[in-house]
Design brief:
Elements lengths: L6 E3 L2 H10 L8 E3 L4 E3 L4 H8 L8 E5 L5 H12 L4 H4 L4 H4 L13 H7 L10 H6 L2 H7 L5 E4 L10 H4 L1 E6 L2 H16 L7 H9 L8 H9 L7 E5 H6 L1 H12 L5 H10 L2 H5 L31 H15 L12
Parallel strand pairs: 4-5, 4-6, 6-7
Antiparallel strand pairs: 1-2, 2-3
Helix pairs in contact: 1-11, 3-14, 10-11
The protein binds adenosine-3'-5'-diphosphate.
Length: 334
C-alpha cells in the first residue's frame, strides 16, 4: 500500500511567517493532502512509511493536535491499561512507555548535530536523540505488544486500517488555548533564539500555518468518527471539569473495571499539581528541567494573551472554520 498524499511547498510568504515562529528547520515547510496539513519538509521522506505502518489489534493510540492534553491522556490510558502500575509509571518516562510515531519526521537534515550540541533545547527533548538515530516508526514497528502509540498526525495521514484494527483515543482542546500553549512550548525549546511574540504565533496559527494545522480539520476528522466503536473522543475542557467522569468513560471504552477508590487515586495522580512535579510525564526525565510539558493547565487561559483585536479574529476564525460542521467545542458557541 502506498500513501496517497500530495505535497506542495508553502509559499515564500508563508515560509517567512512559519520560520519566524519555528527555528532550526532547514527545508521548506510543506502542505500535505487535500486538507493541506502543514508539516516540516523532512516529513515527506517518512510519510509513506508512516501511512503503511502495521497496526496491531492490541495497540492503543492517543491522537491529538499538539498541546491539547496529549500527555495527560496518555498517562491516564497507560495506567488504565496496565493495572494502575504506578511503580513503573514512576520509574519509566512516559515517552518510553508511550512513544510518538512520527518524531523522526520532525528532525531536520542536520538535526542530529543540533540535538548533540543541544542547540536551542533540542538535546533536552526526550526521545529526540534516539529518533535521530533510528526512525521512530521503525522502533515502534519492532516494539513488543501491547504498544502504546502517541501521534499528532490527523487520521487521514495514519494507516487507513487504524480504526478497524486498534483502539484510538482522540483528545481536543479549545484552539485558542492550543495556540497559547504551542507558543510557550516553542519559546521554551528555542531559548534566547526565539524572536517571535505571541502575536506572531497567533498570526501563523490563524492562517493554519503551524505544523499539524489546520486544527479544526484535524479535530473534525476524529469527531466524524466519534461513534466508531474503536474511537473515543475527549475534550480537554471536560477533563478539567470532571476528570473522574472522563476516566470512567475511558474505562468503559477500554473495557477496564476499577473500584471507585482506585479511580479516585488515579484522579489524584493525574491532578495538575501532581503532574507538574512528575518528571516522568513532564518530558523532564533527565532532570535538567529545560523542557517542561506541563505549564499552566488552564482552560480559557488564552483570555489573558489575546488583545481585543485577536479576540475578534479568534471569533471569526472559529466561526468560519466550524461553519457547516457539527463539531462543537464545549468552550465556544457561535
Ligand atoms: P498549557 O501549556 O496551557 O499549560 P500536550 O501534552 O498535548 O502537549 O498538552 C500540553 C498542555 O496540557 C499544557 O497546557 C499542559 O499544562 C496541559 N496539561 C498537562 N497535564 C495536565 C494536567 N494534569 N492538568 C491540566 N492540564 C494539563
Amino acid at each position: 500500500m502506498r500513501s496517497t498524499h500530495t505535497f506542495i511547498e508553502v509559499t515564500e510568504e508563508e515560509e517567512r511567517i512559519i520560520r519566524k515562529c519555528l527555528l532550526g528547520y532547514t527545508k521548506p515547510f510543506i502542505k500535505c493532502g487535500s486538507k493541506g496539513y502543514v508539516m516540516p519538509g523532512s516529513f515527506r521522506k517518512h510519510a509513506e512509511a508512516i501511512y503503511n505502518f502495521k497496526v496491531r489489534p492490541d495497540d492503543v493510540w492517543v491522537v491529538s493536535v499538539p498541546r491539547s492534553g496529549t500527555t495527560w491522556t496518555q498517562e491516564m490510558v497507560w495506567l488504565l491499561e496496565n493495572d494502575l502500575d504506578y511503580k513503573t509509571a514512576k520509574s519509566k518516562p512516559l515517552f518510553e512507555r508511550f512513544p510518538m510515531l512520527e518524531t523522526t519526521s520532525h528532525i531536520p537534515e542536520m538535526g542530529h548535530i543540533f540535538i548533540r550540541m543541544n542547540f536551542m533545547n533540542l538535546g533536552s527533548f526526550q526521545g529526540l536523540k534516539k529518533a535521530s538515530q533510528t526512525p521512530s516508526w521503525k522502533t515502534l514497528e519492532m516494539a513488543p505488544s501491547p504498544r502504546f502509540i502517541k501521534t499528532h498526525l490527523p487520521l487521514s495521514m495514519l494507516p487507513p486500517n487504524l480504526l478497524n484494527t486498534a483502539k484510538v483515543i482522540y483528545v481536543a482542546r479549545d484552539p485558542r488555548d492550543v495556540a497559547v500553549s504551542y507558543y510557550y512550548l516553542h519559546k521554551m525549546i528555542a531559548k534566547k533564539f526565539m524572536r517571535a511574540s505571541f502575536a506572531d504565533f497567533w498570526n501563523a496559527f490563524k492562517r493554519d500555518l503551524l505544523p499539524m494545522t489546520p486544527v479544526i480539520e484535524h479535530v473534525n476528522e476524529s469527531w466524524d468518527q466519534r461513534h466508531n466503536k474503536n474511537l473515543h473522543f475527549l475534550f480537554y475542557e471536560d477533563m478539567k471539569k470532571d476528570l473522574k467522569r472522563e476516566i470512567q468513560g475511558v474505562c468503559k471504552f477500554l473495557d477496564r473495571n476499577y473500584t471507585d477508590e482506585k479511580i479516585n487515586e488515579l484522579v489524584n495522580h493525574l491532578s495538575f499539581d501532581s503532574f507538574r512535579n512528575n518528571k516522568n510525564v513532564n518530558n523532564n526525565a533527565n532532570g535538567d528541567g529545560k523542557i517542561q510539558f506541563i505549564r499552566k493547565g488552564e482552560a480559557g487561559g488564552w483570555r489573558t494573551h489575546f488583545d481585543a483585536e485577536m479576540k475578534i479574529e479568534a471569533e471569526f476564525y472559529l466561526s468560519a472554520r466550524l461553519k457547516g460542521l457539527d463539531l462543537k467545542y464545549p468552550s465556544w458557541s457561535s
